[in-house]
Amino acid sequence: MTTVALIGNPNVGKTELFNRFTGLKQHVGNWPGVTVEKKVGKCVCKGKEFEIIDLPGTYSLTANAIDELIARNFIVEGKPDVVVDIIDATNLERNLYLTLLLLELEANVVIALNMWDIARNGGIEIDVKKLEELLGTSVIPTVATTGEGIEKLKDEIINSIKKERRKIKFGYGKEIENKIKKVKEIIKKDDELAKKYPVRWLAIKILEGDEEILKKLDGSKYKNEIIEAAKNDEDFESVLAEKRYDIISRIVEEVVTKKGKEEWTFSDMLDHVFLHRVLGIPIFLALLYAVFQFTFSFSAPFSDMIDLFFGWLGEIAKQNISNSMLASFVSDGVLAGVGSVLVFVPPIFAMFFALALLENSGYLARAAFVMDRLMYKLGLHGKSFIPMMIGFGCNIPGIMAARSIENEKDRIITIMINPLMSCSARLPVYALIAGVIFGSGYMAGAAIFSMYLLGIALAIMMALIFRKLLFKGKPSPFVLELPRYMFPKMKTAMLHMWERGKWFLIKAGTFIFAVVIIIWFLSNFPWNATNGGTSIENSYIAYFGHAIEPVFKPFGWNWQASIALFFGFLAKEAVVGTFGALLGSTQGGIMEALKNAHWFTPLTGFAYMAFVLIYFPCVATIGVMLREMKARYTLITVTYTITLAFIVASIIELIGHLLGFS
Amino acid sequence: MREEKVKAMGIYAAIIGLIYLFISIMEIFGGIYNVPKDIFGGLVLLVIAATYLTGVKRALNGECKGLSFLIAGVFLSSVFGILYILILFANWLEYLIGNASFSFYLRPEIWLFFAILPLAYLIKKEIRW
Ligand SMILES: Nc1nc2c(ncn2[C@@H]2O[C@H](COP(=O)(O)OP(=O)(O)O)[C@@H](O)[C@H]2O)c(=O)[nH]1
Ligand SMILES: [Mg+2]
After folding, report:
1. Distance between CA A86 and CA A92 in Å, rounded?
2. Domain residues of chain B, as ranges?
3. Residue of A273, A296, A308 to mutate for B, most B C-beta atoms under 10 A
4. What is the mean pLDDT of residues A233-255?
5. DSSP-assigned states of every residue in A185-243
6. What is the Å distance from ligand 2's center to A246 Cα?
7. Looking at the domain A174-258, which fold is it?
8. pLDDT score of B8
9. Residues of chain A with CATH 3.40.50.300
């Protein structure tokens, strides 16, 4: 089968194009660094089957960051038949760098000149014929969002498989060329190497001292000879980079004409404020507050409807199932437990929707930028904030997003603090408990919002501690690409909401369902002793609950709350599921039931929320952490989160008591 | 763009900004007239007020840079205006399902949103994307 790889700088529309080709719905984000792993899809066009690979966005092909390495290895080792290099027509200067590297790699390159619509509207004229001539490849203008030019691109892909490409060598000047030639001659002696890699490219990489590539020489008997020949005391990498930029600026000068005078655009003006030294962070926090208001206040009636529905279903089940054990299982176990979690589908979907709007508008990248400045001052790596923001949805993609951080220390710190970002699975716990202890007024909203802020504050604090203790040194500086502002599209936002929210539904239907059944069993058996579930104090779960209760007693949490924390190890929304199954089905829904049970006072409830935020990354997150970093660091993460949870909950209760709360 | 126009927008923004500031203080402390206490909500209004007011001086000088703050202010006003309209709708739904009583309380954010619409229109006419 023919393989086609899509490559390009971050945020140029690769994924959008990938989705066009394959009909899949991968996440398209107006946000650099969304695709951190390669994704594969199939496409049949003109009767031929293609395998399409969406690579992570990269600026170059050096071996510095994991995502760049993934892209490079795929092209070097995977040898795709065609490499479609997607470049942003509005920014050739930056985008062509990767193109030159790909041509150097002698890949079979077809260029998609994307964002053609924006270039057109912005008065940027590009001489496509000339560009084709200078680069020796075909260049097709495309608009990935509307599909313009896609058919032509497909034709060109098919053509390029057959066609022998005109090779164009970009010379680096006599001195450098001589050195390249010298190394090349020796490499050619080793047939195996010469067959496996493009010789000129290999020679350049060796001269640059690329470690990954030097490792590839290990099997060769000419290794020492090659290294001897490549010996140089210049910084080849930067010398070559400079030369490449020279070449690019000459190309750009020839093909691009800009019409109209430079003036301040809307986008410049917005950035002037959103990135403002003083106003930047307050505006970010204000918009975050809007997201949470939308999440909780707007979704409330929809949650209540679901709550009422499950309460009603439970009553019906109770009345119509004659076998009392089965009736209890269905209404108090399954319906009450799963229902109590499903009640939180509306706020979770609302939050994903709101975040998607912010992301697609281009604002979220600005927020990252603003927070970077603050974090860098604190000694944190700037790129950390993007994974942190993603962590609000779910910690797992947040941790994966850390792959775009080049420096290993920075990356590990970023991963270790990610569990402190309050993911959507914790939201049901906050919503339930805040509703119970503070009612529906603004206090509940403030309490929930403060959890998110607490998470950010603790994450920053822990990062500082890790920087001081584990990974000494300064964070490496970084440049964040700012995407352009766009009016967010309803359809894309809905798609995001579904893509991310569906995991919550799937978890509720499988994992939480299983947990709830276990809890029902434990809280109703031994059946005779509990008198059919009515005296829960005689059940197995009460036995376990009382066993761990002493640990949490000082915080004023009863055994039910303690056992819920235990199940919350698996997934945080299981805390709510546990409450649901323990309280059984009632007319007014879980909120009413918990209110009437008087398990929490405002103070103990608030401390409980903070505890749930911090105390343990869920098992799925632990799994990903083990994959992304050494086990040692995962162990540290587990330990510190548990410790920190106890400390923070104690401090909250202590201060609360001093202030006269109970 | 003509300087007088920028100045006119500056005056408009100054008035709007001061109203935001005033209401923000009422929300933060609460209990004045029947504006309910809402600390975070009040802080948000303070941020919006600051955004408008930062731009006023420059706009009054006829500088285009001052307009940036007005644009961002309009953006923020719209976000919160629309947000609270949606929440009003949600409260009404809540009332329909019999869960809560409903009072048609127009939060200041909502009518302030309508108050900035003329400014939004002027800006849209003057600036290209
Ligand atoms: N106007 C316009 N927007 C585009 C085009 N291609 C992609 N986009 C938008 O650019 C953003 C980045 O796209 P994405 O596919 O995620 O980029 P990737 O990071 O390269 O995968 C998204 O908001 C897209 O909707 C295009 O041709 N024209
Ligand atoms: Mg992508």
Report:
1. 11
2. 3-80+107-126
3. A273
4. 84
5. HHHHHSHHHHHHS-HHHHHHHHHHT-HHHHHHGGG-TTHHHHHHHH--SS-HHHHHHHH
6. 29
7. Helix Hairpins (1.10.287)
8. 85
9. 2-162
Query: What single DSSP character describes residue A334?
Result: I
Record: contact A304-B75, CB cut-off 8 A: no
Claim: this prediction has a pTM higher than 0.90: no
Distance (Å, whole) CA A624 – CA A615 = 17
Report the nearest atom of ligand 1 relative to the CA of A86: 20
Per-residue pLDDT of chain B (129 residues; tens, 9 = 90+): 567 778 888 899 999 999 999 999 988 887 677 677 788 889 999 999 999 999 888 888 877 777 889 999 999 999 999 999 999 999 899 888 876 677 777 888 999 999 999 988 888 777 655
Interchain CB distance below 8 Å, B86 and A289 = no
Within 8 A of A589 by CB-CB distance, chain B residues are none
CB-ligand 1 contact for A333 (6 Å cutoff)? no
pLDDT tens by residue, A134-157: 888 999 999 998 989 999 999 898
Chain A positions contacting chain B at CB under 8 Å are 263-270, 272-274, 276, 279, 282-283, 285-287, 289-290, 293-294, 297-302, 304-305, 308, 440, 442, 445-446, 449
| Residue A532 to residue B6: CA distance in whole angstroms | 76
Higher pLDDT, A230 or A480: A230
In angstroms, rounded to a whole number, what is the distance separating the alpha carbons of residues A6 and A56? 9
Residue A375, class by beta-carbon neighbours within 10 Å (0-12 exposed, 13-18 middle, 19+ buried)?
buried
CB A184 within 8 Å of CB A137: no
Report in angstroms the alpha-carbon separations of A228 from A224, A231, A560. 6, 5, 71
A392 Cβ neighbours under 8 A, 6+ residues apart: A351, A355, A398, A421, A422, A423, A424, A452
| A124 CA from centroid of ligand 1 (Å) | 18
pLDDT per position as a tens digit, A398-455: 888 787 777 788 889 999 999 999 988 898 899 899 989 988 767 888 888 899 999 9
Separation between Cα atoms, residue B107 and residue A535, nearest integer Å: 48
Q: Quick: pLDDT tens for A471-528.
A: 776 666 555 567 778 888 888 888 888 887 888 788 788 888 888 888 888 888 777 7
Ligand 1 geometric centre to CA of A117 (Å)? 11
Quick check: helix, strand or coil at residue A10? coil
Q: Which residue has the CA at smallest separation from atom 28 of ligand 1?
A: A115
φ/ψ bin of A660: left (φ > 0), alpha (ψ from -120 to 50), beta (otherwise): left
Is any atom of ligand 1 closer than 6 Å to the C-beta of A115?
yes
Assign a CATH topology to domain A2-162: Rossmann fold (3.40.50)
State which H helix or E strand residue B107 sits in: none
Mutate which of A36, A121, A145 to test ligand 1's pocket (most atoms within 8 Å of Cβ)? A145
Locate A639 and state its tokens: 């330990």
Other Cβ atoms within 10 Å of B44 Cβ, number: 28
How much distance in Å is there from the Cα of B101 to the middle of ligand 1? Answer: 46
Answer yes or no: do A442 and B87 touch at CB < 8 A. Answer: no
- Rounded Cα distance between A349 and A468, Å, is 38
Give the integer Cα–Cα distance in Å for A299 and A493.
Answer: 17
- Sign (positive or negative) of CA dihedral A237, A239, A243, A248: positive
State yes or no: ipTM above 0.90: yes
Characterize the bridge pairing of strands A48-54 and A39-45.
antiparallel
Nearest Cβ partner for A290 among B37, B50, B80: B80
